Amino acid sequence: MDLYLPIANLSVNALVIIALGLGVGLLSGMFGVGGGFLTTPLLIFYGIPPTVAAASAASQVTGASVSGMLAHSRRKGVDYHIGGVMVAGGVLGSLIGAWLFEVLRATGLIDTVIAILYVLMLGSIGGLMLKESVDSIRVTKGHRPAPARRRRHHPLIAALPMRWRFYRSGLYISPLAPLILGVLTGILTMLLGVGGGFILIPAMLYLLGMSTQVVVGTSLFQIVFTTAAATMVHATTTKAVDIVLAVLLLLGSVAGAQIGSRLAQKMRPEYLRLALALLVLIVAIRMGLGLAWRPGELYSVEAA
């Protein structure tokens, strides 16, 4: 079942794109990540231009995150107070990211920059997640002692001025910390089409010191509004959002997020993190090879 994508200017198999959205939606519900960090590379592998893949993935992440966020909200797993601060930062970051996107596209470097950023980020984050998950499994099986308990939030966070109380998360910290985190997420959303959950989750746990009960839901809450803002900015400035591609992805991801949120309650978290880490590293390696491999023929001519 082939469909033509007007912005990407090519035909795709609709069922393949829907299946891709379903898989990414599962990740969204299980881990609290928007899934864009996998959607964009997989679309690029399929042949979608990187700029269109990044812009369209942001809109797909919105739908997947809405579905997952509602599921967590019903279980009181969302801190709307700290999430609202991160959303404000995310909208500001989206505007900054739109300017960077246009500058890079004007210089002809946007496709290369997207690929390099993905390799660096996925490789580093996947490696850290792999180490952390393996350590957790070893502690669970008794092969090593549990690490010493650390303070709730990072010393740099504790040093910031103007503290607020975030009751649902059990925090008393400066709003500047979640605001800056939101700005960085907004920039990444514009440039790479990611929701930023794969950065938000560890940052909220290990930097802000948020309660684990609200981390996933709050991450999805922030992602919903940041990716929605990024989609609007892309649609009005870069004109790179392919609505047909976005709808196909949404059809799969909304259903996948609901299934993923249920699976997350039944599976052990350390094994979930291990699976995600391996998946992230595989995608990073594939993108790195794509940058380094030299094609057999630099140019090709096909008969009409």
UniProtKB/TrEMBL annotation:
InterPro entries: TM_pro_TauE-like, TSUP/Inactive_protease-like. Keywords: Cell membrane, Membrane, Transmembrane, Transmembrane helix. It is a multi-pass membrane protein. The chain crosses the membrane at residues 12-37, 43-66, 78-101, 113-130, 179-207, 214-234, 240-259, 271-293. It comes from Sphingomonas qomolangmaensis. Its main location: membrane. It is found in: Cell membrane; Membrane. This is Probable membrane transporter protein. The keyword Oxidoreductase does not apply. Pfam families: TauE (PF01925).
